[in-house]
Amino acid sequence: MHAYRSQTCADLTKANVGETVRLSGWVHRIRDHGGVLFIDLRDTYGMTQLICDPDSPAFAEVEKLRSEWCVRIDGDVKARDESLVNPKLPTGEIEVFVRDIEVLGSAAELPLMVFGDQEYPEETRLRYRYLDLRREKMQANMHLRSDMVSSIRRRMWDKGFREYQTPIITASSPEGARDFLVPSRLHPGKFYALPQAPQQFKQLIMVSGFDKYFQIAPCFRDEDPRADRSPTDFYQLDLEMSFVEQQDVFDTIQPVMQGVFEEFGGGKKVDTDWPQISYRDAAKWYGSDKPDLRNPIKMQDCSEHFAGSGFAIFAKLLEQEGTEVRAIPAPTGGSRKFCDRMNAFAQKEGLPGMGYIFWRDKTADSVAQELGITVKEAQAKMKAGEVEGGMEAAGPLAKNIGPERTEAIREQLGLGVGDAAFFLGGKPKQFEAVAGRARNVIGEELGLTDKDRFAFCWIVDFPIYEKDEESGKIDFEHNPFSMPQGGMEALQGDPLDVLGYQYDLACNGYELVSGAIRNHKPEIMFKAFEIAGYGKEEVEKRFGGMVNAFQYGAPPHGGCAAGIDRMVMLLAEEENIREVIMFPMNQRAEDLMMNAPNEPLAEQLMELNLRVIPQD
After folding, report:
1. Are 299 and 324 in contact (CB under 8 A)?
2. What does the pLDDT read at residue 438?
3. Secondary structure in 3-state letters for 154-186
4. What pLDDT sits at residue 173?
5. Are strands 453-454 and 269-270 parallel, antiparallel or unpaired?
6. How far, in Å, CA of 214 to CA of 201, rounded?
7. Which of 82, 202, 308, 552 is at 20 to 30 A from 163, Cα to Cα?
8. Whole-angstrom distance between the N-terminal and C-terminal Cα of the chain?
9. Cis link prior to 597 (omega < 30° from 0)?
């Protein structure tokens, strides 16, 4: 028999009854039923119930066991009494009577329990991550991650891609975030960098004639942490293709992503129609370039109804250039209580409030006011049917702008009795993000967001440039390596009108994929950077390897990268990316388990010709 096990803790069934077996694993739970010990033995595959009583020669040793001890047992497989069968376990029809036991590794007092659903502070979980990872949910998350990556690889190979590895130590290259620098021992005073992405290398692979590349690539960025972003490193499905246009990339990656979500989505509906929405429309309709389309609410411009109206705040605002008023429809949100809650939400977001209108059946108060009679008389007329019912608009905005404008807004938004609309005004860039968050909250609170669905959309037509309002300087708003739509000719006009062949894929409010058709022509690249204030010499200095390569017959090419961690986070229904990363950093970019970052030894600094300057 094998030194440690003849089967795993998930293998044994009724067919094994009468066999002598050997199992190894961790003591998950111990139950003492009047001198008869029941032990759940766990490994990564499953659970087997052990039983031991005083008739067993191993009873004295079994009595010493505690949670999370690692043990090897020998025993006899027995059928459980029918009333004790556990249908939730593959091994639920049997139990193993322990004849012999060996403790492979005893456990000290546990800082966190593996058994049960107790909640522990994240700092504790990360400090003792090896214990945290033994928990059922974490095991399932890591299995999901591994299986998903394996599926992605198979799907990419089936599409004719080959996997190539790119360097981990390279030159510093601005990609939109801070580099992690690595000092060179052989070249004092010089530094390598960990790659923020394999961007330049994968483009060089295309120049080298390989046509289709992919990689499950580690990327390193010194970023501020968020719930959906690691502060140090992450993995992405990185791919690049030659002789392609934007739609070719979409047609390549959609079956891969869609197939993965169908395979691992737990039965949730996976949308097959992925709309293409321009960046500007996404901001206008959803207040975000990663909209959650499970929420059907689409914001609209209602400026015309407020211009010159009795609501002075919006009316004066609209006299300024570049301002507008947006409406967020809220079907079924037509109660003062809900409107007040959303107004409080806006105040928490740092706004003075959020204007609203809601529509309801006419009240006796409004009929009395309309006819110049008492409320009691109005009630009597309404009861007698002498006054037609109908709908009325309520809320501060309705009173200020009057019934005609209010009715025009209702018709534009397609709302009715029991519905509401919320309004924000100003320069769009200043309020769009808050409007987008308000849209999400409204969709959630009113039950409009379909939770049982993965809704994808492509965001396209990103502007390449933006203008700093204070300095007036033109700079890149998005990826500087994207091919401008219209090529060199597009760069001759207003830079703020130039769009790039750049695209993102959003799913349920998260950006999962980002990519572009690349600018592979040196003359167009130099011109694009010149508009943003970067001379030819600076471009050659920063991106010399790639620019030089483009002088030797570079093919048109494009690609994208999909975030592995975010994909797993969505599929595992987790809200924090650290729940799907094996050994993540905490929110301060610290590894509490390995004590990183730490201070280098004096000898290490001397070898690298470095000196640490103490902070004041």
Report:
1. no
2. 96
3. HHHHHCCCEECCCCCCECCCCCCCECEEEECCC
4. 72
5. parallel
6. 12
7. 552
8. 65
9. yes
- C-alpha 542: how far from its chain's center? 31
Please report the DSSP string for 202-259 in residue order: HHHHHHTT--EEEEEEEEE-B---BTTB-SSEEEEEEEEEES--HHHHHHHHHHHHHH
Residue 358 identity (one-letter amino acid): F
Tell me if residue 384 falls in helix, strand or coil. helix
- What values do phi and psi take at 579, rounded to 5? -75, -10
Q: Which of 32, 39, 36, 33 is nearest to 23 (CA)?
A: 39
pTM for the predicted model, two decimal places? 0.91
**Longest alpha-carbon distance in the chain:** 98
* H or E element at residue 98: strand 94-105
Position 1 scores a pLDDT of 84
DSSP secondary-structure letter at 83? G
Dihedral sign from CA coordinates of 109, 113, 118, 122: positive
Strand partners, 515: 503, 560
Residue 143: Cβ-neighbour burial (10 angstroms; 0-12, 13-18, 19+): exposed
* Dihedral class, residue 176 (left if φ above 0, else alpha if ψ from -120 to 50, else beta): left
Contacts 24+ apart (CB under 8 A), 587-592: 587/225, 587/231, 588/225, 589/222, 589/225, 589/231, 589/232, 591/126, 592/123, 592/126, 592/127
Ramachandran bin of 502, using left for φ above 0, alpha for ψ from -120 to 50, beta for the remaining angles = beta
Burial call 69-90: b when 16+ CB within 10 Å, e when fewer: bebbbbbbbeebeeeeeeeebb
Residues contacting residue 520 through CB under 8 Å, at least 6 positions apart = 203, 483, 550, 554, 555, 556, 557
The candidate with the shortest Cα–Cα distance to 259, out of 147, 141, 164, 138, is 147
Return all residues near 280 (Cβ < 8 A) that are at least 6 apart: 461, 463
499 bridge partner residues: 463
The C-alpha atoms of residue 581 and residue 192 are separated, in whole angstroms, by: 26
- For 191, residues 6+ apart whose C-beta sits below 8 A from its C-beta are 172, 181, 182, 183, 184
Please give the Cα distance from 206 to 553 (Å, whole number): 11
What's the count of helices (H) and strands (E) in the chain, helices before strands? 19, 26
Closest CA to 420 of 339, 316, 535: 339
Rg (CA), the chain: 32
pLDDT at 117: 84
Distance CA 148, CA 263 (A): 9
pLDDT along the chain (616 residues), means of 10: 95 97 98 94 97 96 97 97 93 97 97 93 96 96 98 98 96 78 94 93 96 97 82 96 98 98 97 97 96 98 94 93 95 93 91 89 66 67 62 87 93 95 93 95 96 98 89 86 94 94 97 97 93 89 87 96 97 96 94 94 93 85
Side chain identity, residue 313: I
Burial 357-368 (b: 16+ CB within 10 A, else e): bbbbebebebbb
What are the residues facing 543 on neighbouring strands? none
- What whole-number distance in Å separates Cα of residue 363 and Cα of residue 360? 8
Amino acid (1-letter code) at residue 70: C
Specify burial of residue 295 (Cβ count, 10 A radius: 0-12, 13-18, 19+): buried
Beta bridge partners of 453: 269
Q: Whose CA is closest to 184, among 200, 171, 167, 201?
A: 171
